[in-house]
UniProtKB/TrEMBL annotation:
GO molecular function: GTP binding
Residues that, per the record, bind GTP 1: 12-19, 59-63, 122-125
Protein name: GTPase Der
EngA-type G domain segment(s): 6-170, 185-360
Keyword set includes Secreted: no
UniProt cross-references to InterPro entries, sorted A to Z: G_ENGA, GTP-bd, GTPase_Der, KH_dom-like, KH_dom-like_a/b, P-loop_NTPase, Small_GTP-bd
Gene Ontology biological-process annotations: ribosome biogenesis
Length: 452
C-alpha cells in the first residue's frame, strides 16, 4: 500500500484532547493519554484513517507561552514545525473549559501560518457542551465542529470537513497499489534517561525531529521516525529512558516505561545506548538482559564519546565489561559514538545491519549435525545418576532469533552449564555474535515405555 500524501497536524493548548483524537483516528492507543496537562512532548506521526480517507497524522505538544530556551519553548518549536509541514491543521479547543487567552493567542499563530484549518471544539458531549462550542466562533477560524474524541461523537462532521482536502482520493483508489516488499527495518533506541537517545535520532535523520535538552526524561512517548539510510528504509523508534523499577513511582513514567518495553518487543534490532562517562551501570545490564529475553538483535552504542579522554583504555575496559557482564549476548558489537558531533554514527548503523543479518541467519541441518557430532566427541554430556545423556540430532527450528532444537534421551537432566557450552559452541561455529540464541531439548519417546 502506498504511503498517504496528505499530512494532518492536531494542535492546541495542553489538555484539550489532542492525543485522544490521535489515538481515535489511528485506531490504536499509540499516544500516552492522561488528565495531567502537557503529557505529549514530541511530535508523533502515524497512519490515520477516517472512513475512506487515509492520511498521515501528527500529534503535537500543547502550545504554551514560554521563555526562550526552556523545555516548553522547545516543545512549542516542534509544534510550529509540524504546522509548517502540514497540509491541514486541526485546531482543538476545550468546549467544557471555554475559550482562554492561550486559545486566542495560538489561533492567531495558526492563522498566520496560512494553512487550511478545521476548528474542533472537543469535549462537547451533550447539549450543554455543544452550546459552549459556539463560543469558538470568536477565534475567527471558521465554523467550530462540536466533537467528543473520547466517545467518537462528531467524526461524521469531521469527515465532511476533511473531504475537500482529498481531491485525488477517488482517483487513487482506482489505481492498483504497487507491491511493497521492502518493509522498513524496525530499530528501537533504548537506554537510561539522559543517555542521548533523542540527540542520536536527530543526528541520524539530519533534523531536529526529537525534543532534546539537558533535562533527564524529556521523552515520554515512544516516537517512530521513518528514514532512509544508504537506500535502506528504516523506522527508528525513540523511547523514554528506563530507570530502575523501584524508582518508577509516577503514573506517567510507568506508562512511558510500558511504551518503551512495547517498542523493544516490536523492534527487529535494539540499539542500547550507554553513557560513555558511566557505562555498564546495573540498569544498562538489566535493559540488555530484557532485550535478550525478548529475542531481539542487539547493537550497543557508547555515546558521549567526545567527552572521553583516554579513549584506547576506556574502549578496552568497556569491551572487557561487555564480555564479562553480558555473556548472554557475547560478541555483540560495541560502537563508540557521539550523537552531538556525529562521530561514529555511520559505524553504529553498519553494526545494526550486521546484527540484523545475524539475527536472520539460518544454519543448514547437515552442517549443524556435523558440529554436534564433533562437539559430543570432544566433550560429551556428563552422566547423571550414573546414566548417560545421549544427544542424537539437531535442527534449526527458526531464525529471528536463531532457535535450535536438540533431540536425545534424558535431555531434561542436562545441566545448565552444558547447555551454555552448546550455545557458545553454536555461536562460535556458525558466526552468531551477539544473537540471543534459543536452544531447546526434546526427548525421543521410548517405544518400550508402556505408560498406563
Amino acid at each position: 500500500m502506498s504511503e498517504p500524501k496528505t499530512l494532518i497536524a492536531i494542535v492546541g493548548r495542553p489538555n484539550v484532547g489532542k492525543s485522544t483524537l490521535f489515538n481515535r483516528l489511528v485506531g490504536k492507543r499509540l499516544a500516552l493519554v492522561d488528565d495531567l496537562p502537557g503529557v505529549t512532548r514530541d511530535r508523533r506521526e502515524a497512519h490515520g484513517r477516517l472512513g475512506d480517507l487515509e492520511f498521515r497524522l501528527v500529534d503535537t505538544a500543547g502550545l504554551e507561552n514560554a521563555a526562550g530556551g526552556s523545555l516548553e519553548a522547545r516543545m512549542r518549536a516542534q509544534t510550529e514545525a509540524a504546522i509548517a509541514a502540514a497540509d491541514v491543521v486541526l485546531f482543538m479547543m476545550d468546549a467544557r473549559a471555554g475559550l482562554t487567552a492561550d486559545d486566542e493567542r495560538f489561533a492567531d499563530l495558526v492563522r498566520r501560518s496560512e494553512r487550511p484549518v478545521v476548528l474542533l471544539a472537543n469535549k462537547a458531549e451533550g447539549k450543554a457542551g455543544a452550546d459552549a462550542a459556539y463560543e469558538a466562533y470568536r477565534l475567527g477560524l471558521g465554523d467550530p465542529l462540536p466533537i467528543s474524541a473520547e466517545h467518537g461523537e462528531g467524526l461524521g462532521d469531521l469527515y465532511d470537513a476533511l473531504v475537500p482536502f482529498f481531491p485525488e482520493q477517488e482517483d487513487e483508489a482506482e489505481e492498483e497499489p504497487a507491491p511493497d516488499d521492502d518493509a522498513p527495518l524496525r530499530i528501537a533506541i533504548v537506554g537510561r534517561p539522559n543517555a542521548g537517545k533523542s540527540t542520536l535520532v536527530n543526528r541520524l535523520v539530519g533534523d531536529e525531529r526529537m525534543l532534546t535538552g539537558p533535562e533527564a526524561g524529556i521523552t515520554r512517548d515512544s516516537v517512530s521516525v521513518d528514514w532512509v539510510w544508504r537506500g535502506r528504509r528504516i523506522r527508528l523508534v525513540d523511547t523514554a529512558g528506563l530507570r530502575k523499577k523501584a524508582r518508577v513511582v509516577d503514573k506517567l513514567e510507568k506508562l512511558s516505561v510500558a511504551d518503551a518495553i512495547r517498542a523493544i518487543k516490536f523492534a527487529e534490532v535494539v540499539v542500547l545506548l550507554l553513557d560513555a562517562t558511566v557505562p555498564f551501570e546495573k540498569q544498562d545490564l538489566s535493559i540488555a538482559d530484557l532485550v535478550a529475553r525478548e529475542g531481539r538483535a542487539l547493537a550497543i552504542g557508547l555515546n558521549k564519546w567526545d567527552l572521553v579522554e583516554a579513549r584506547g583504555v576506556e574502549l578496552a575496559a568497556a569491551r572487557e565489561k561487555l564480555d564479562r557482564l553480558l555473556p548472554q549476548v557475547k560478541g555483540a558489537e560495541l560502537v563508540p559514538l557521539s550523537g552531538e558531533t556525529g562521530e561514529g554514527v555511520d559505524k553504529l548503523m553498519a553494526a545494526v545491519l550486521r546484527a540484523h543479518e545475524v539475527w536472520n541467519r539460518r544454519v543448514p541441518t547437515a552442517a549443524l549435525n556435523r558440529w554436534l557430532e564433533a562437539t559430543l566427541e570432544r566433550h560429551p554430556p556428563p552422566a547423571v545418576a550414573g546414566k548417560r545423556i545421549k544427544l542424537r540430532y539437531a535442527t534449526q527450528a527458526k531464525a529471528r532469533p536463531p532457535s535450535f532444537v536438540l533431540f536425545g534421551t534424558r535431555t531434561s537432566d542436562l545441566p545448565a552449564s552444558y547447555a551454555r557450552y552448546l550455545v557458545n559452541g553454536l555461536r562460535e561455529a556458525f558466526d552468531l555474535p551477539g544473537a540471543p540464541i534459543r536452544l531447546t531439548f526434546r526427548a525421543s519417546e521410548n517405544p518400550y515405555d508402556r505408560k498406563k
